[in-house]
Amino acid sequence: MADGGFSVEGIESGHFVTKWFDLFTPFSVGLIYLLYRCFEKISIFKPNTSRPGNSARYVICEKKKSEIEAVINYLSYATEVLLRGDGNGDIRELVPVELLQDADSFDNYICSSNNDFGRKEVMGLLKIAAFAENRHLSEPKQTQMRKECLEYWHLPDRTRIVPKHLKPEERLRSIVVESVVKYLSAPPMIMTSKNVTTTILQNPCDWYAVLCGSDTSGTTPSNQLTFYLGMGKTKVFRLVKNIWERADNIELPPNTVVYAQLVEEIRGLENNIRKTESSHIVDAYLLGGEDVSRNSLPERYALINKFCEALWKPKNSAYCPVRAKELHPLDRELPMKLHVQPCTLINKKKLLVHYLQDSYPRRTRPDNDPLSFVPNSVVFLKTTSAPWTRVISKKTSHHYYFNSMTNENFYANRRPESACASFLETFVTRVQWHWLGDSSLSIIYIYDNVKQKSPVLLPQD
Fold first, then answer.
1. Strand order in the sheet with 388-392
2. Rounded-to-integer distance, Cα 387 and Cα 295, Å
3. Which of 28, 282, 297, 450 is a Cys-bridge partner for 383, taking CB atoms 3.0 to 4.6 Å apart?
4. pTM
């Protein structure tokens, strides 16, 4: 399906079904023509359950052909032009009208389909107008069709009722396991110079780091790291001191549970500084109803990135952007990746900011303004589950997983499922370092000390 309702990634069948509302313009007909060239068979269908007064219909494509890369590249280029939205890149047609008319079988089919659906749509609209003018009119076919459909599908004949509006805590308990609810307010381990040299981060290969921020005016409840619950569109709640409060200006799909933070982002340079608010996701349990809690941490981050891209809205949207935090392994390159630079605001105030990498290169800002935020802390997230550890082979320099209880070891491509830390394990074992408030530590110092505590690197074949 292409309506965004659910994902079929990894189980694609070579067929394609998509819903359309317009097949009359040269642009939309050109799109259908490209599908006609990419599949062995296509048909345009309007089911009886679709309202006759609207233009909705479905294009059904069967058996994708091979060697269609040229069409894919062409559509990717057209998408780039449309997304720029600079006024000079409007596309009125994808395929020249002359070419469409030369394809006799396609031209005849699309014209016949449009004429047929057009007549039915006009008839449906005329009936709606007649029923609106005369309230005493009735349509007996509708009741009979409903009865026949219920009998055919073996469904009970009862009236739909308005669903109960659950409170956030009730909705949460209905979509996550009880053990997660119990640990929602579990505090992180705070890293200090006293405990960094003990067992707090035993093996650097087991950990990843994310850089978290705060607003430039000071820490407030709205920008603290906490859980966000999406109940559909703007019905979004955040957990503050064990109470679910409404989160304004955020839009999340229903059945979404993420660990996130509101961040004040800084756009532009020097005299062109602007501040905007954004939501940065650190980790996720549910993404639009999809349970990702058992995936490994890097896999969860890949899904979070895809989730955020699906939520992207054009500039000047009423809702703040939703981004995935940048995830970095705990290694010697971490200081460079978490690098901060001075930034001077319009009032000459100087700040140390971290510049973000653009998560969506196809959607860069027209003015290419750099995007940054003021860092406040580093959160370390564990990616392996005990008794497994993730170490580096002396012989190949590749990562592999070692079980200290059984002495088993597997390379990453054969990683056992039990070696992955779940969302809950990652959350309850998280470690937070208040970077700007703790001058006694540095990233290099942390890495060197935890490396000394690492298990001996084994020579792998």
1. 388-392, 399-403, 409-411
2. 18
3. 297
4. 0.69
Long-range contacts of 243-248 (CB under 8 A, 24+ apart): 244/167, 244/168, 244/169, 244/172, 247/222
Q: Is 87 left (phi over 0), alpha (psi -120 to 50) or beta?
A: left
List the pLDDT tens digit at each of the 461 positions of the chain: 455 555 666 667 788 888 888 888 889 999 999 999 999 999 999 987 788 888 889 999 999 998 899 999 999 988 888 887 666 667 888 999 888 888 888 989 999 999 999 898 999 899 889 988 998 888 778 788 888 989 999 999 888 787 778 899 999 999 998 888 889 989 999 888 878 766 567 788 899 999 998 644 444 566 789 999 999 888 999 999 889 999 988 999 999 999 999 998 888 776 777 888 889 999 999 999 999 999 999 999 999 999 998 888 766 677 888 999 999 998 878 888 888 888 887 777 788 888 887 544 344 444 567 888 988 889 999 999 989 988 887 777 788 888 888 988 888 888 888 999 999 999 999 999 987 777 788 777 777 776 665 554 444 43
To which residue do tokens 């196809």 refer?
Answer: 362
**Burial label, 328 (beta-carbon count in 10 A; 0-12, 13-18, 19+):** middle
Residue type, 43: S
Contacts of 350 (CB under 8 A, 6+ apart): 342, 343, 344
Give the domains, in start order, of the chain with CATH numbers: 16-153 (no CATH), 169-452 (3.30.470)
